[in-house]
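Incident log, structure service

09:12 report received: a user says their structure output differs between two submissions of the same chain.
09:20 pulled the input from the user's history:
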Amino acid sequence: MTKERLKEEGDIIKLDSELKSVVDSWESRVIQLTTDIVIEHLSTAKPSTDNSSNEHRDPENQTLLKNDLEQVKHSVDERVGALKTQLDSLRQELEQEKFKTSALPKVDQFESLRQEFETAKIKVESLPGLEGQLIKLQRELEIERQKQSSHSELEGRLEKLQQELETERQKNNSISILWEHYQRLQEQQLVEKERGDQLERRVSDLVSQASEARLIIDKREETDTVQIRQSLRQSISTPTQASPTPAGSTAIKYDDFASMPVTRVELDKALREVDEIMAGKDNLSTNKPGRKTGRILRSLMADLKLVESDNDQSGELQSNINELKEWVKTHEQKLTEQANTNSAVQSRLEALRSEQDSERSTPSLSNTVSSEVKQIVRVEISSRMHEALPRIKERLESGLSEEASKRQSLEEEMKRVAVESMALREQMESIKSRLQESGLGLSEEAQEHKKELASLAQRIASAESAVTMGRGETASDIEELRMQSANLRAWQDSFTTKSLCKEIVDYINATVPNGLQRQMIDLVYRVDRFEARLNTAEATGLKRRRLDDGSVAAAPRGPQ
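09:34 re-ran on a clean worker, output below:
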């Protein structure tokens, strides 16, 4: 009896160990399947999310996708943990009850759960396709942005070329200004040439007038000397040929002679008239002595003023004019010296008059004295004119030579400027041709870029519309995924151990129909037999005997 009981207890322990091994294998298999599914979904979702985070630029969609994936992962982890806890609780219940329950669970609930899990798996697998579409749209947007950046670079190049064109236009304007300045300098050169020619003509006219005046003065001097000699001869010859006169008549002649000599007042008056004639206006009606000399001096002063005005306009003959002014000052000093000499002559005339009064000479001496005075004045004026005219000529010639040298240097400078302007003009023409060529090329490129920009704008508009459509689709899909996750969470919250046990048993029966069920039937049969034996052993008709170890056992019926 004890052997059978020990055998039955060993069978129960063996059955319990076999059941534990089956449950452990099934648990490990379920955990492995769930972990493989979760790892697969996470591995498929993670690169898509990484690519979307690297390439996708929409922060709202990115955060939504991340949140949804985290929720799915969290729900799967919670489901796996719940399954583990449920398996542990089932194991504990199985150990406690030791297969006392005979009712087997149904397979329909487990099949429905598996179908829901498969649908959820399909929907989760459809997420990478949507993410791929989003990534494709992001790449298209990046390409459009790169094209827009290239368009901005082209616009920058166009702006630089426009600035270069503006600088070239400014250079061309400066070249045109230089050319106008060169033309003005040429015009000024022509004007200066004309003025120089006029000055040369005036100087030649002055020289000719001075030579004519000199010839006239020489002729007058010759005629005056001839007249003086003739008058002297006549005055000398008249007393010898004349008859003697009475004493009263001689007294009258001496009185007339005394009144005839030139007085100081008359000499001053004559000098004053000469000064007025030389300094006043030219009157053609008068034919007084000194008129031509005054005319020459006035023409010289007018020429000097003209030269001074020309020098004020051109700024090149100021030094010569200053020298001429100094010469005029020296001439004024010489005129003062001449006035002093005139005063000396006047004093000499007074001395001669006193001598005439004392000697009572003939009346012809007054004429000789006046003629001598005139001759002295004329000689002095002619000598001064002879001295002044060569100086004026030399100074004018030196000024003209300096002006000619300056004019020559100016011509050389103008030639150099003309050469430089021609070179600049050639450079300007080459730059214009290059700019025109580059401008045509740039205009063509700009038109092509405009066409590309128009096509890009159309593509961007289509991409934006596709993005908006994709956003709507993804939003609907994400909302559906949220609803499914909510349903899954609700199912997980309402999940019970009994249904899980039924599903596990159904699954075991479906997968191993001939092994575990047979073992369980045998175990039930053995348990029934064991209980029957126990019941029979505890019946009232049995005898008991004491064993060697002190325990009491029922004695078998019948013969031993």
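09:41 both user submissions now match this output. Likely a transient worker issue. Closing.
09:42 reviewer note: Residues 134 and 374 are 129 Å apart (CA to CA). Residues 108-241 form the longest helix (134 residues).
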